[in-house]
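fyi for ur records
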Amino acid sequence: MDRTTQYGGRQDLPKGDGRPRLDDTDGRGAGPAPEPYESGSGERTAWLLDTIEAEIIPRLMLAHRTQPHAGPQRSSLRTGPTPDEIEEFSNLCLVQDASASLAYVVALRDEGLTLEEIYLDLLTPAARRLGALWETDDRDFTEVTIGLWRMQQVMYELSPSFRRETDHQPGSRSALLAPAPGSQHTLGVFMVAEFFRRAGWNVSGEPAMSARELIQAVSHDWYDVAGLSVGAELHIDGLTQFIADLRRASRNKALAIMVGGPIFVLHPEFVALTGADGTAADASKALTEAEKLVMSSTAAVPKRADIGTAA
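which gave:
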């Protein structure tokens, strides 16, 4: 069934200001947009995503807030969206309004898709498809910008239901998640934070933390994992030294440091160059990797209670 025939309408790009935090829905002032790159399509895409995630998506999210879907009654046991559904959804995000994009996802949920499948197997490949359409000039900047925002808005609206899908209670493990210094790759950080919180982790971090703020955070509070998201190769410069500084400053001397983002999918060898402990291709795998890293390091140093009582 062509679900796009159920929905209609257009939505103009609204005006607004602010940048949502990773740990709440309050806004913060947005910083300057990154400068466009000139050397190739890969850097062109990275600039596009940085601009969208740092400036446009936060403002649109603050201007369009609706009540989240309460959750479907699963009517079948189907698995994963099909390639046709991924294409259909991405096209819908390009030509219809945000409520139509959400309604399409709600229909898929009613057919039996889990929210994890929607996050990983629908939203992620659909966003990549929009990026590819812009690279090939099949869609212009404005169309792709609004389409990607609609995908982010779907995730934002589904967030409460996503966190309720499991029975995990808040635990003692904590993570600091943020874009790497100089990077504004917030979309992936937001999705990873969703998976960590659903698993009971305490998650901290904001989209625009400076290197100094990140170092202060790990020196003041105990974190089991620090996750840094990188959007483009140019942000790799300086990351090795920053990770070393982060380790030295950390209150947890066995802090596990993970890096993520499309650049590490394309160049997994960069992980070792930065001195990070690991990476993952998506948010679900990032959670699994983080759990493994923490388990392997728990016996290496005193626990936080011991640190607090040390003379």
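The CA atoms of residues 196 and 287 lie 6 Å apart. thats all i got for now
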